[in-house]
Amino acid sequence: MTRKWARIGLIALGASLGLGSVAEAAGVLTIGRREDGTTFDPIATAQNVDFWVFSNVYDVLVRVDETGTKLVPGLAERWEISDDGLTYTFHLRDAKFSDGSPITAEDAAFTLTRIRDSALSLWSDSYGVIDRAEAADPKTLVVTLKTPSAPFLSTMAMPGVSVLSKAAVETMGEEAHAEKPVASGAFIVEEWRRGDRVILKKNPNFWQADQVSLDGVEWISVPDDNSRMLSVQAGELDAAIFVPFSRVEELKKDPNLKVLVEPSTREDHLLINHEHPPLDNSRVREALDLAIDKQAIVETVTFGVAEVANSYIPAGALYHNEANLQRPHDPEKAKALLAEAGAEGLSLDYVVNAGNEVDEQIAVLLQQQLAAAGITVNLQKMDPSMTWDMLVNGEYDLSVMYWTNDILDPDQKTTFVLGHDTNMNYMTRYRNDEVKQLVADARLEMDPAKREALYTRIQELAKADTHWIDLYYSPYINVTRANIENFHQNPLGRFFLEATVKN
Asked: How far apart are CA 47 and CA 359, in angstroms?
């Protein structure tokens, strides 16, 4: 593309997205992201596109710090744990919701009970260990567990358990509150234009409001990676997330930009729908794994930035099994396994996020690699806003997805992808009763060495079953204009927009 045509394209893009006027607003940070969110109900989603936005709309009792390595006080300024590990007493600080009402222990108890019991909750199994959550007084929350739980304190920092106003949810109704909630965090949802943008404004009642520099934040949906990068280069966006690997070096050379490469817990993987025969046969899934050249994907798609993954627990995370099986690229063995399983001539439908440069590149590579093993892959490019529902509804055979940890402990991801049926094991429909029991056992095991042994075994069994296909681990890569300071994402994915400054 010539420079002249590029500039014309940028002008047209700015007009079509309506970016120009908002980008110039003083104190309002505009961030380009791929897709729109789905809800502001913390218990009803497991998507980063939601968590990463409402982590600055809500607050939690216990936070993860900016390094993503330790727990620190949030709405609870301190806590005690009983000697038997069954009782957690949280002492809440003086804080208010965005409507000016006090944040109380009753609100926190309501939040915990709701994530455990509500039919809307995608996280009920992770909080089933809670026996009672009660307000001893307005500022003292007492949580009693059914059994000791190694990951419990970490789960209190998960975005899904963000503290809600009991009065607001009950008065407004869950559906209305999920559209325009009463906030407990740094920003208020001013407006949500579905498919376009979420407009946030500073919450003057936030307990740390004096530390928040920005007047507001706009998360703007720009599904096409190239368009999103061009918008930042043109100054029509202040920042953009999900920088394509192919654009990193070029963007680094632009003096008007900052490219931020930060440690992450991201793992990209290929989901397999076990309910679609013959994908219910472990030999067929193993054949898929053998047919895929992960190193070629890392070199071609990520330009060597990523590293090949060998487990659902990312490298560097707690209890990652460095010795876990990593199957070699062996298309001939893949063919033999397919023949043994009576699955020769296999044809699969692969759902791809259209406009996602990396997803599209991976899809083409996988299509070629699987073809070498005699497998036909039909690529179905879909709008990213539609793909999630397709996965939930089982309307796919294969699809690349990614996961970033939301808590420090491996229990959350393990439970979600291997340990229960609430989320169909992250839409794979994978079932293994032995693994499910080990996941439950690991949650209760308080001895770190024994717990590590359980997670090592879980990783081995999951790989043996090929519950999904591990592809690679990669850092977060974001870009901002040069005048933006402290735009930071910790390894769990949280953006610390409370500290971001727009000069």
From this structure: 17
Could you read off the pLDDT of 319-343 as tens digits, one per residue? 999 999 999 999 999 999 999 999 9
495-498's contacts with Cβ under 8 Å and 24+ in sequence apart are 495/52, 495/55, 495/56, 496/66, 497/29, 497/56, 497/186, 497/187, 497/214, 497/217, 498/56, 498/186, 498/208, 498/211, 498/212
3-state secondary structure of 402: strand
Closest CA to 497 of 154, 178, 66, 157: 66
Distance of CA 252 to the CA centre of its chain: 26
Catalogue the E-assigned strands of 120-256: 130-137, 140-145, 187-193, 197-202, 216-221, 239-240
pLDDT of 422 reads: 65
Query: What pLDDT is recorded for position 187?
Result: 98
Map residue 183 onto helix, strand or coil. coil
406 Cβ contact partners less than 8 Å away, ≥ 6 residues apart: 51, 158, 159, 160, 412, 413, 492, 493
**Cβ atoms 302, 472 nearer than 8 A:** yes
Q: Would you say 391 and 401 are in contact if contact means Cβ atoms under 8 Å apart?
A: yes
Query: What sign has the CA pseudo-torsion 274, 279, 280, 284?
Result: negative
Please state the φ and ψ torsions of residue 200, each to the nearest 5 degrees. -110, 145
pLDDT of residue 385: 79
Q: Map tokens 């809800």 to a residue.
A: 39
- Nearest to 91, CA basis, from 136, 32, 43: 136
Structure tokens at 454: 């359980």
- Tell me which residues of the chain have a pLDDT lower than 50: 1-25
Q: Tell me the C-alpha distance between 150 and 23, whole Å.
A: 45
Longest pairwise C-alpha distance within the chain: 70
Query: What is residue 421's predicted lDDT score, i.e. its pLDDT?
Result: 66
Nearest Cα neighbor of 36 from 387, 461, 278 is 387
Q: Phi and psi of 421, rounded to 5°?
A: -110, -5
Say if CB 312 and CB 418 are below 8 A apart: yes
User: Given this model, what pLDDT does residue 384 score?
Assistant: 83
**Residues 203-239 pLDDT 10s:** 999 999 999 999 999 999 999 999 999 999 999 999 9
The partner residues of 350 in beta bridges, in order of sequence, read 379, 398
Give pLDDT, residue 178: 97
Q: Give residue 1's pLDDT.
A: 34
Q: Which residues contact 451 (CB under 8 A, 6 or more apart)?
A: 150, 319, 442, 445
298, 304 contact by CB (below 8 A): yes
Q: Give me the sign of the Cα torsion angle 478, 38, 436, 399.
A: negative
Q: Residue 154 corresponds to which tokens in the numbers above?
A: 């970490």
> DSSP characters for 227-279?
HHHHHHHTTS-SEESS--GGGHHHHHT-TTEEEEEEEEEEEEEEEE-TTSTTT
What is the pLDDT at residue 420?
A: 74
